[in-house]
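We store sequence with structure; for instance:
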Amino acid sequence: MAAIRPYRPEDAPALAEITLAAIRTTALAAYSPEQVEAWAARYSVQRLLNGAGKGDTILVAADAADAPLAYTVLEAGGHCDMLYCHPEHTGKGLALALLEAAEAEARAQGVVRLFTEASELARPVFAKAGYEVLHRRDFAIPHEDREVAIHNYAMAKAIG
């Protein structure tokens, strides 16, 4: 099993690779190629760096050689902003372990409710971690001079 550890600045390139691999590969099981490309185009490693700079808790699941395999971002106030696992390591319990670690961190911060916007593929993992679906979110992503329809799920979990 992987070890869960805090993010380090040198993790940023690996986390960007994990994110884009997950979006471009794993997401194709539930979203169209057009949706996947629009989603991938929105990702920026700078967003991760900005979050780390403002104090987001970033937890990394790393292998025995300390290489990142998956990660999650917990923002102040209990928002789980990202949960990505490299496609070669999905289905091994990494996402659930990260959510459990994020919940422990949130409790330590005095957070009483966690919430997220989970993709079609992440929804079952969040549900297994005790999150409930509040509603489906249908929206559009601007991409290449058009709007690409996509959806995810608002989910929450009381922890206080």
